[in-house]
Amino acid sequence: MRHLNDGTLRRILDEPLAMTAADQAHFDSCPECKSRFSSVANDARATATLLAVPGFDTDPTAAFSSVQARIKRDEAARPPRWYERWIDRSTPRLRPLATPAIAVLLAAVLISGVAVTGVAGQLVRVFEPSQIVAVQVSPSSIVGRNVLLDYGQITWLPAAPTAQPVADGATAHALSGLPVLMPASLPNGVSGPVTFAVVSHATGSLTFDAARLNASAAKAGVRVSPMPAAINGSTLVVSGGPALIEAWGLPGTGSQAQVPTLVIAQTRAPTVDSSGATTAQLEDYLLSQPGVPPDLAAQVKAIKDPSATLPIPIPKGLATTENIQLNGVQGLLIKSALGAGVVWVKNGVIYAVGGQLTSDQVVAIATSLH
Amino acid sequence: MLHAEAWRPTIIPAPLSAISRRLPDPFERVFLQEYPKVVAIAYRVLADRSAAEDVAQEVFLKFHRSFSPDSERASGWLHAAAAHSALNVIRGERRRAQRETTHALDRSQAPAANPEHLVEEAERRREVQRALSGLPERSAAILMLRYSGLSYAEVATALGIRVGNVGTLLRRAEEALRKEVNRATSQ
């Protein structure tokens, strides 16, 4: 029989049971293999000495907490994906309450998910947009003031809304229940495959809690006015989505840095219901929160029917707006140096078309959707 | 104008407690199971506890970003990543690693330890690190994995080789390491 090779000899030093019976029989009767084994074992022992390190105990549980904290930080710092950025810019979106508390009211769209139990019968609809209006927002008045205040308990049912890319139009339609809209033709400069994303429907609630707000304001070093009794303890229920987003000009879902050349989006208009506070009370209160610039508050207060009007924030100096008629309703045309967009509300659905295009081009696309 | 309409949620009355109830997290399970091994592999070459823990944290973060914790390849990937990441540390930042080694030995020895012995230990460790970083990647990795206590089957999975080849590669790596160390000390 052939001699055992070095690999086999090395392994039987560590795992003697791995040796086959035939190898064992040969080894027992072969002085040469035994001699080589002794040399292999010497090298192994020398290596063990070289690689020896002092022992210590690990604490996996503490290490896990630390890794989790890193993951949370990294996720917070992650640049938003294109569809998230786009949603933030263009449509009412459900996101946590923050100062600027433009949030709540403005879009009233902020929160989602609810502890409805027990209050369902007392809810009053305070926001159901059927029209839109532009409000000028000065970017400098908001940047850097993003202190997160805790206005109360936020609950999601079933879960916070998420945007997810989907493979094709049929899937997007199946997931969102919204029709996939296509322009009659694409303008020059817009080409390539279309990418779809769907934002799930979500319902959320915010139960105002003066004690929590005061505690978080004290922690953040921010002064807040006392929460009125009518607001404290009352619950807002926000329902939003689903939304369907179609984007052109993205080479693939992996390229998140790319700005799409054309985006068509639609979402069921969000609604907000209140268990106690009225639209006027909410408006007065929220617009007086830290972080809301006075000129913005004045514009929102000037809205005649705040319960049915969706304010679209327009960065002052960076974009201009114009009311136009399209598809039988009034829409808002937004023009900027980077491109143009148009937003309109029809039959409970908010539509938006925008991209690196001229205003004529976006209007042409918006009116040709089918 | 308020629409005083009663709001009837068409929501399935899923118990809210279900949302907050802590579900078993597969990432946490993999973490708690593999963390001691991942640290041990990195520590084997770095010989510094906090440096090894840093490597382990980076390895798990990368794992979290890129893989499903349910993957069958999870353990093997983590072990291999620990070895390669620690080797990168001694290769790319050998000077820093050396400082940490001295520091680590200072802390890990009993207070009564002989200072001369500490210096010798630090010198020996530097030499081993230099030798390891001079070996082919796979040879260095197989030494780290095996001497951190992984079985032959685990080593094979981590490096994507057949278990029958582990002994041969390990034997060659040990010879190569011995030659590297001897070459350096005879210079």
Query: What is the element string of chain B, with H for helices and E for strands?
Result: HHHHHHHHH
Q: N-to-C terminal Cα separation of chain A, in Å? A: 80 Å
Q: Residue ranges of chain B: pLDDT <50 for 5 or more in a row?
A: 1-23, 105-111
The assembly state of the depicted protein chains is: heterodimer
Q: Structural class of chain A, please?
A: alpha+beta
Large-scale geometry of chain B: globular
User: What's the rounded overall pLDDT mean of chain B?
Assistant: 78
**Lateral arrangement of strands in the main beta sheet of chain A:** 4-5-8-9-15-14-13-12
Question: Any low-confidence stretches of chain A, pLDDT <50, length ≥5?
Answer: 86-122, 142-146, 252-257
Core attributes:
heterodimer, A: 370 residues, elongated, B: 187 residues, mainly alpha, 9 helices, 75% helix
Blueprint of the fold:
The complex is a heterodimer of chains A (about 375) and B (about 190).
Chain A: H1 6-14, H2 21-28, H3 31-50, H4 60-77, H5 82-90, H6 102-107, E1 124-127, E2 131-137, H7 139-142, E3 152-157, E4 163-166, H8 169-176, E5 194-199, E6 202-208, H9 210-220, E7 235-240, E8 243-248, E9 262-268, E10 271-274, H10 279-287, H11 294-301, E11 309-315, E12 319-326, E13 329-336, E14 340-346, E15 349-355, H12 359-368
Parallel strand pairs in A: 2-11
Antiparallel strand pairs in A: 1-10, 3-6, 4-5, 5-8, 6-7, 7-10, 8-9, 9-15, 12-13, 13-14, 14-15
Chain B: H1 17-20, H2 26-46, H3 49-66, H4 74-92, H5 94-108, H6 115-134, H7 137-147, H8 152-159, H9 163-186
Helix pairs in contact in B: 2-3, 2-4, 3-4, 4-5, 4-6, 4-7, 4-8, 5-6, 6-9, 7-9, 8-9
